[in-house]
Amino acid sequence: MFGINDPGIWMAYLLTFACFVFSIGYGIVFWNKDKSKNDQKHQEK
To answer: How many domains does the chain have?
Structure first.
């Protein structure tokens, strides 16, 4: 595929894609978590 036969290159592509998917998921899950904690601290004062 794509003319690349070396398994090391395919592992690099696979790990890059896995990191991309993980970072998107992490961003979605933790999008406003810290912000809501800071808002609660300001409201208590």
So the answer is: 1
